[in-house]
Amino acid sequence: MQWTYRLAIPAALNRKTVRDCLKEWLIPKRIQGQLRQGRRLWVNTVPASVATIVTTGDQLTLQFLPSDFRTPTSNYAPDSPNSVVILYQDNDLLVVNKPAGIKSHPNQPGEVGSILNHLAAFLAPTDQAPYMVHRLDQMTSGAMLVALNPVVVPILDRLISTKQIHRTYYAWVRGHFSQPQGQFNDAIGRHPTDKRKRWINVPDAQEALTDYQIIRTTAHQSLVKLTLQTGRTHQLRVHLAANAHPIIGDPLYDDQADTAPRLMLHAIQLHIQRPFSTQMVDVSAPLPSLFQNDDLIDTF
C-alpha cells in the first residue's frame, strides 16, 4: 500500500526548495524526514532532495508509505451505507450530511452504527476508506468532514486548527438576545461536579471564541448562526447555556430538554481549503425541515 501525489508547482512556489513546498503544504516535519530519508521525492521524474529548487509548472512527486503514519489504515467495520448522503467528495476528502442521533465514530472495537461505519461500507467498492478528522456530537446533524487517506489527516487537522477550515452552525436557542450579533469569549474547561459536562471560567478553562448572529426569532426562541473560532469540547452548547440561551433540546445544558424531539443544532456549512491547493470549497448541509417550522419551535 502506498499513496503517490504528483503535484504541479504553482507560481507562488516558483524558485522555492522542495522543503519549502512541503512546509507550505503543511506536511509534518516527521513525515518530511521520512520522505527525505526514504528518497521518495522526484521533480519531473528525476530523484530530488529537499534542497532541490523547483519552478512554476514543475511536477513534484511524493510517495507515502504506511510506515509514515501513526494510523495508516482505517479499521471501521462496514455497516449499511443506506444513511449516507454525500455533500462533496474529491480524491482526498468528503463531506457527509450526518443525521441527528447517529454517532460520528464507534467508541469500542467492532462497534457499528456510526457514520464512519456507514461510510466504510459506502466507500468499499471504490477501495477508499474513511479517516476521522472532525466529529459532531451524536444529536447534532449536518456537514461533517472525513479524510479519505492518512496523508491528508494531519494536513486537515492543521487547517482546522489554523482556522483555514471554518465551521458554521445554526441553532434554535431559548430566549432573545439584546444584540443582533456578537461574540462569546468565556474560557471553557471541565465542569467542577459533573464529568459529562464542560463549563466556563473553571480552573482548567482554555480560551474559547464563538461568533453569533441572530437569523430570526419567534415569540420565545431565536435561530442563531454560530461560527467557531476555537474548538473546545461542547463549546457552542456551553457558551449558549452559560449566557442564558441554552440550545433547545440539549440533554446536558437545557433544563427543558424533554420538550423537544432532538438537540436543535445543525452544522450548516464547512468552508474548506483543499490539501495541496489554494482552492477553497464551501459545502452546505440543507437545514432540516424541523428547523424551518417556527410555529412548532415555539412550543418546545
TrEMBL record:
InterPro entries: PsdUridine_synth_cat_dom_sf, PsdUridine_synth_RluA-like_CS, PsdUridine_synth_RluC/D, PsdUridine_synth_RsuA/RluA, RluA_PseudoU_synthase. This is Pseudouridine synthase. It catalyses: a uridine in RNA = a pseudouridine in RNA. It comes from Lactiplantibacillus daoliensis. It comes from the Bacteria. The lineage of its organism: Bacteria, Bacillati, Bacillota, Bacilli, Lactobacillales. Residues 92-242 form the Pseudouridine synthase RsuA/RluA-like domain. It holds the Pfam family PseudoU_synth_2. Belongs to the pseudouridine synthase RluA family. The keyword Isomerase applies. Its EC number is 5.4.99.-. PROSITE patterns: PSI_RLU.
